[in-house]
Amino acid sequence: MRTPKHLQRLFDGWPDLVCFDLDGTLVDSVPDIANAVDKALLSQGAEPAGEVNVRGWIGHGSTTLIRRAMIWADVPEEHYEDVYSGFLKAYFEHLADESTLYSNVESVLKAFKHQNVPIALITNKPSVFVKPLLDHFGISSYFSWMLGGDSLDEKKPSPVPLLHCAEDVDAEPARCLMIGDSLADHNAARAAGFKSALVTYGYNHGLDLTTLEADVLIDDLVEMLT
Ligand SMILES: O=C(O)COP(=O)(O)O
Ligand SMILES: [Mg+2]
């Protein structure tokens, strides 16, 4: 396979490491996350928030998600532990009832693997959900790392999880690529010295992604391979 044009331009070949974000990049997980948030809110007698609201609260980890939902629903802060544990339980029980893989995820993972590029999964989702979700879609075996928001001391937009993987394989940050959908992914990439690719279909909260000047902006993951 000839080197895809974006990779040729950025790395003069294939990168030494590629890191993927999860929610909004590989998996459209909003339906199940929203159902779990709504269950937790309903248990407090609050209104359900629904998918459109929840979509705007994803990307900074589950604690931020629940805090935003509680503010929106006017649930008193002292109920945080109850709402958070209700969310965790409900989501774990229905992790992938309605969630779907975005198009071309598996073929893109396969192409990087075929070139022996180490692949990392770096999400701000709590780590307890990560492997079960990837297992559900049959893609866990592609990843040499599966890091959740609580796996290390810091999460995205900190560069710590990205640099952790780069150091493991002795890769120069400038030869590493982060592919994500949000400002947290882009800022983590920049702080780590990685190249940043953003997908336009994810949960970018109405942000005009062109203003971020990512190295690559794509409407479908397969564009990484063209
Ligand atoms: O749980 C979240 O906030 C979503 O995380 P991700 O977009 O980093 O996968
Ligand atoms: Mg994301």
UniProtKB/TrEMBL annotation:
What cofactor does its activity depend on?
Mg(2+)
Catalytic residues, per the record, are 21
Binding residues for Mg(2+), per the UniProt record?
21, 23, 181
Per its record, the protein catalyses: 2-phosphoglycolate + H2O = glycolate + phosphate
- The source's domain of life comes to Bacteria
One example GO MF annotation: phosphoglycolate phosphatase activity
The pathway noted for it is: Organic acid metabolism; glycolate biosynthesis; glycolate from 2-phosphoglycolate: step 1/1
**What family name appears in the similarity comment?**
Belongs to the HAD-like hydrolase superfamily. CbbY/CbbZ/Gph/YieH family.
Q: HAMAP family attached here?
A: GPH_hydrolase_bact
Q: What does this protein do?
A: Specifically catalyzes the dephosphorylation of 2-phosphoglycolate. Is involved in the dissimilation of the intracellular 2-phosphoglycolate formed during the DNA repair of 3'-phosphoglycolate ends, a major class of DNA lesions induced by oxidative stress.
- Report what the protein is called: Phosphoglycolate phosphatase
What is the source species?
Marinomonas piezotolerans
